[in-house]
Amino acid sequence: MLGLSKKVRVASVRVLRCWRDRALILLGFWRAFRSDELCRLQVEHIQARAGEGMTLFLPRSKGDRDNLGTSYSAPALQRLCPVQAYLEWIAVAGLALGPVFRGINRWGQLQVTPLHPNSVIPLLRQTLQRAGLDGEQYSCHSLRRGFATWATCNGWDQKSLMSYVGWKDAKSALRYVEAARFFAGALQAPAVREFSAIPLPDEVG
């Protein structure tokens, strides 16, 4: 009986982590966030409506020299939706305040403190490895680079990409765009078109 209880507990912890990791990866990808930005998200700074979209506020960010904070938007999608993934995660975890993405201990208890940015990389790699991919090829910039590739494949110009991601330095953006153009040819067009519903920056409120 004790063995069965342990298996149930382990399974419950894995399921909880899956809800968290799915939200982290989808939100990180579609918002082109870095690891540190994901780890600084607070529930009270996010407004999300299923089927509509979400707004996220970061009180401080890398390019915010005046510490005024930065607001971001993300649309709801029919598939691989960051909004739905976020809403489901906070509902399952029972989160109303504090860090969105937290550690989960072996007993399935949520930590009070946020994930450390350095822990996002192994989390991402483990998830990819479970999906049969070579996780070692991915880094803390992979989600942002992946979105830049997707946007480039869908015809976004550099100005639109900079506006959406929040880049103010064209040189920084160009590094991602050039890498995106290199990898874009490896993507199959049908797979890319499935998510072409995401609006350009001018269409995002």
Automatic annotation (TrEMBL):
Source species, domain of life: Bacteria
Domain Tyr recombinase: 1-193
Any single GO BP term: DNA recombination
Keywords tagged on the record: DNA recombination
InterPro entries: DNA_brk_join_enz (IPR011010), Integrase-like_cat_sf (IPR013762), Integrase_catalytic (IPR002104), Phage_Integrase-like_Recomb (IPR052925)
Pfam families tied to this protein: Phage_integrase
Record-linked CDD domains: INT_Cre_C
Keyword Protein transport among UniProt keywords: no
Name of this chain's protein: Tyr recombinase domain-containing protein
Lineage: Bacteria, Pseudomonadati, Pseudomonadota, Gammaproteobacteria, Pseudomonadales
